[in-house]
Each structure stands twice: as structure tokens, then as C-alpha cells.
Design brief:
about 450 residues, alpha/beta, six-stranded mixed β-sheet, 16 helices, 13 strands, about 40% helix, globular
Length: about 450
């Protein structure tokens, strides 16, 4: 049986639109879109048959199934042909048992889904492989475009530029000047994208790129485009598969533009709808205190998220005051009995440092999620035997300046209680031995 997917209105307006059509909002109500799958067609295989198929493909070399996204293509974008797919072996990322860190906060079964173990170093690759592949197919079918474009706080631009380069598509990225790390800035530059650094924040960049898309100047690659969600939802598929098709009790994710919160829900919901699993995990979305519109709304019992002016935060990728996917995130939280927490700058810095000392190398956004986890553990929402997965969204290697400044104690307003600066000693055996002894004394 052939499988099909199409855009439909998130709010329920009638009608569907082909995935290859450049449409980002419902033409009737102006609301967000989602990708709808023909679930009846997908039920031609039993849950056991789907699990066997996905296990047979997982991390194999047969194109395109080595990808953690395209290994589940029927559940993602089933109509994209092999020769249109643009993949860099994304997905299949490690599920790291955070034994020492978990025990330090009272958990025995804590895992970190290391989505930063990907081609461009973040989970954004998962959504971008789907979006760029569909655009490539659409161009072959006659779509004319000037460029594929995004606003970004760094990781989206890196992913779009790399996948666009692999597909031979022109890419434009709009970045807030001075608000992305050096590693994030150089990635789209190296990939040949037109990089526009604007004197504004992410929300200002987003308003301009949305206007460019509305005027037909560019094809929009931000997570307002529901194609991105389709790739990102495979994180839920993967973690369940990695637990031998068992659902964790909690999933914790940092929240900025909030597409990831909904993507996780979409993935878990699809697993349940097709009978592979029987329940949803609980969801915790954690925001930086300096960019916390979802936290403010949820804490006040509101189900509409009012924009805020995002203040500067070390968790720069989630410095977003007007999240496009807020309505999607609200639905995810309601369906998954969710909670929202926030992290101060000092809290996220210390969480990153403590986690690093147990073998992780944590980006500041993952640290926000760790703070959220610690808070729900302290509130008694998470039991000591609950299985918890924290979604780590990016490689800590993208944020070297953050790490260096913490250990130098040069971050304004941060005490850096766990700083571990290098010790300068002469090139002399006795001095080195004395330094070792002093270190051992401090550790004890």
C-alpha cells in the first residue's frame, strides 16, 4: 500500500496541501500547519511488523536507511524519492546513561539523548534533512525559488547552510549580530550561505524572514514550517527504539521557539496511534529565565503565550521572546501532563559545570533542561526509579567561549562555584608533584 502525507491546519480548518507547496500557514485562518499522515494506510503493517522493519534498517548502510530519519521514512515524508533525499547520516544519536549525574540528584535511571552528535552538531539536522529534501523534490517538479532562508540563533543556520550546500540550493540566513557563538557563525559562512548579521534579536530576524517568505522572495526554513517538525519527531521514535520499544516516564527538553516540544509529542502520539506503544511520557519544557514566555503563561494558568522581550542569556539559542510554535507546545503539554520550569543564568552555568564533571560536555541549553529536571525532582514529581530522558540539543563544542569564561570566572553575575582553571607550575618534577598533592587534598 502507498503511504501519503500532506499539510493540514493545526486548528482543524478543512482541506490539505501538498508538502511540496510553499505554504506555512493555513490559508483560511492564518494559523500554523501540521503534517497529517494517512494512519489507516500505515495500519497495513502490524506494530510488531513496523518494529521489525525499523530495527532491520537502524544504522544500516543501505541508502537512505542509515539516517535515523529516513530509516522511518513512511512515518515522516513517504513520497520523497530516494534520489531527492539529502542526508548526512543524521539521527541515530547516542542515548547516554548519566549514571553519576543522575545519582547526584537522586535518580537511578537518567539518560541524555545526545542530539548534538550529528553532522552540524545539533538536533536541527533532523528537521533540515526533511525540509531540504522536500524542497529539492519541489524544485524538480517546477517550484521556482530565489533562496531557502531562515532566521537563526545559530544552529538552524548551520544545518540549513550545510544541507542546502549538499543539495546545491542557494541559502540565506539572518542572524542577530553578536548573539551567536563563533562556532555557530562560521558554519554557514563555510557552507557558502549568504549570512546577514542584523542589529536585532532573533525575533527581529524572524519578522523579516517571515515577510520575505510571505512576499514569495524566499522559501522559509524555520520551524514554523511543519516539515521541520517531521524530522525532529524522530527523536521520540529513536529513544523508544533504543529502550527496546519502551516509553520513558519523563522527557525533558529546553524550549526556545518551542517546535521541539511539539515534535516530541507528535512522535510519541504517532507511536501510540499505530499501536507500537500504549502511553505517552510526561513532558517538562525548561526555559531560560531571561526568555521565558511559555513559563510565564503556564505558571499563570494561561493557555495563550504572550510575547516578551527576551533578555540576553548565555543559552543564546533559546533567547526567543515570541516563539512561533507556542500553540503547538501548549497542546503537547496538555496531552502529556506536562510542566514548565525556568533556569536562571547562575543555575544553568552551575548545572553545566556539575554535569561536565560526570562525563558530559553540556551546551548551555541542555543545562537549562538539567535545571528543569532538578526542579521537578525537588518537587517530588519524578520518582527515584522513574526513567527520565533529557534531550541534549547541541554539542557543547559549539559553546567553547561559554565554557572558558565560566572556568575563568569572567561571566558577569555568575559566581562559578565549580570553576576549574588550569594551574600554572614550573617544568619541574617537585612542583608538579606538589600540585598533584594539593589537588588531592582539595578533592578529599
Amino acid at each position: 500500500m502507498s503511504y501519503a502525507a500532506a499539510f493540514r491546519c493545526f486548528a482543524g480548518c478543512p482541506g490539505t496541501h501538498p508538502l511540496t507547496q510553499p505554504v506555512y500557514r493555513c490559508p483560511s485562518c492564518g494559523g500554523l500547519l501540521e503534517v497529517a499522515h494517512d494512519l489507516d494506510a500505515l495500519r497495513d503493517r502490524s506494530p510488531a511488523a513496523w518494529m521489525r522493519l525499523f530495527d532491520q534498517r537502524y544504522r544500516r548502510t543501505a541508502w537512505p536507511y542509515g539516517s535515523g530519519v529516513w530509516g522511518k521514512r513512511e512515518w515522516v515524508a513517504p513520497a520523497v524519492p530516494d534520489d531527492a533525499i539529502v542526508s548526512m547520516d543524521e539521527g541515530g544519536s547516542s542515548l547516554f546513561w548519566a549514571e553519576r549525574y543522575g545519582k547526584s540528584i537522586g535518580l537511578d535511571d537518567l539518560w541524555i539523548k545526545l542530539c548534538g552528535n550529528s553532522h552540524t552538531g545539533s538536533f536541527k539536522d533532523l528537521g533540515m534533512t526533511v525540509l531540504v529534501s522536500v524542497v529539492r523534490q519541489a524544485v524538480r517538479e517546477g517550484l521556482s525559488l530565489r533562496a531557502v532562508a531562515c532566521a537563526s540563533t545559530g544552529d538552524t543556520s548551520a544545518a540549513l547552510a550545510a544541507y542546502g550546500a549538499a543539495a546545491g540550493l542557494p541559502v540565506v540566513v539572518l542572524l542577530p549580530r553578536g548573539k551567536v557563538s563563533t562556532a555557530q557563525l562560521v558554519q554557514p559562512i563555510a557552507s557558502g550561505a549568504l549570512v546577514l548579521a542584523l542589529d536585532t534579536d532573533f525575533d527581529g530576524c524572524m519578522s523579516i524572514v517571515q515577510r520575505l517568505a510571505a512576499d514569495g522572495v524566499v522559501y522559509l526554513a524555520n520551524s514554523m514550517n511543519a516539515l521541520r517538525i517531521e524530522g525532529q519527531k524522530t527523536v521520540a521514535f529513536e529513544m523508544v527504539q533504543q529502550f527496546d520499544w519502551a516509553v520513558p516516564d519523563w522527557v525533558v527538553v529546553p524550549g526556545g521557539n518551542l517546535g521541539n516540544a511539539y515534535a516530541l509529542f507528535a512522535g510519541f502520539r504517532m507511536l501510540k496511534d499505530l499501536g507500537v506503544t500504549t502511553r505517552l511520557p510526561r513532558l517538562c519544557v525548561a526555559q531560560a529565565e531571561h526568555a521565558n514566555p511559555l513559563y510565564l503563561a503556564w505558571s499563570a494558568g494561561k493557555r495563550e503565550v504572550a510575547p516578551v522581550k527576551a533578555r540576553e542569556t548565555l543559552a543564546s539559542a533559546i533567547q526567543i521572546g515570541n516563539p512561533v510554535s507556542a500553540p503547538r507546545a501548549i497542546q503537547a503539554l496538555e496531552a502529556m501532563d506536562g510542566v514548565v520550569e525556568q533556569a536562571s543564568e547562575e543555575e544553568l552555568c552551575d548545572a553545566a559545570a556539575r554535569a561536565d564533571r560526570t562525563g558530559l560536555y553540556t551546551c548551555p541549553h541542555t543545562a537549562v533542561a538539567l535545571v528543569g529536571l532538578e526542579k521537578i525532582v525537588a518537587k517530588g514529581l519524578v520518582g527515584p526509579k522513574d526513567r527520565v530522558v533529557v534531550v541534549s540539543t547541541a554539542s557543547g563544542l559549539k559553546f567553547t567561549e561559554f565554557k572558558v569564561r565560566y572556568h575563568e570566572k569572567s561571566l558577569a553575575g555568575v559566581d562559578a562555584r565549580h570553576a576549574n582553571p588550569p594551574v600554572m607550575v614550573p617544568a619541574d618534577y617537585d612542583h608538579v608533584l606538589a600540585a598533584l598533592d594539593a589537588h588531592a587534598a582539595r578533592a578529599s
